[in-house]
Specification:
There is one protein chain. This protein is mostly beta strands. Helices cover about 5% and strands about 60% of the residues. It has one domain. It contains two helices and 15 strands.
């Protein structure tokens, strides 16, 4: 990936097990002072997904590249957010059943979005949690609520839509992490993260495995 270099920081290898569909997710994460980059994969019975992610300062998304492949088909997505806040996407699809398609995707209602949210991927919760300081607020017992708009990527079709989401501070957990409340369009859950804002447990999405 091109762009400004990452700050010196920590490198983490995280593995999660997801319940529905049953899958194993792996993320290699480079955490800088105010940004991150990562590449990862998600494997289930029907398909294998791989991705690369890069943020700019304040953990604002700059690039997300996704590829997903199943029996006889493959899709890719290149999602970008410019310095000026303009989102763009290019989606390709090929299969044994028909010709390859290649389209520039219209992205309405994303003017205020700072983050991507890759479906069923625990990693993409990290950016809004870090930027809004929810781990520290939870550790201090402060009430904090952030109403956000996400560029949500559904899986496995790799369609991009606008998603309104709410993150709220919660309670501290052992080791410097927190249990954060998340809600979106009638769905709500408590997400447990470690001190780096990386998901340890997210009901219905995944729980961390020992590495």
């Amino acid at each position: 990936m091109n762009g400004e270099p990452q700050n010196d920081g920590r490198r983490r290898l995280i593995t999660w097990q997801g319940p529905e569909p049953r899958r194993i997710d792996v993320a290699h994460v480079h955490l800088g002072a105010d940004r991150l980059s990562a590449h990862g994969s998600s494997t289930c019975a029907d398909h294998v997904l791989t991705y690369r992610l890069r943020t700019g300062a304040a953990w604002v998304t700059r690039e997300l590249d996704v590829a997903v492949e199943g029996d006889g088909w493959r899709r890719t997505l290149m999602l970008r957010r410019s310095q000026s806040g303009h989102w763009s996407a290019r989606r390709r699809e090929s299969s044994r059943a028909g010709p390859e398609t290649d389209e520039q995707v219209a992205l309405p209602d994303l003017d205020t979005a700072l983050d991507c949210d890759l479906g069923l991927c625990p990693l993409t919760n990290t950016m809004p949690i870090l930027r809004t300081g929810l781990v520290g607020a939870s550790q201090r017992g402060e009430v904090r609520r952030a109403e956000l708009t996400m560029a949500w990527v559904s899986v496995p079709d790799l369609r991009v839509t606008s998603s309104a989401q709410v993150y709220e501070s919660g309670v501290p957990v052992v080791g410097g992490g927190a249990r954060i409340r998340f809600s979106s369009e009638g769905f709500a859950a408590h997400i447990e993260v470690d001190g780096d804002g990386l998901v340890a447990s997210y009901p219905s999405i995944g729980r961390r495995l020992p590495v």
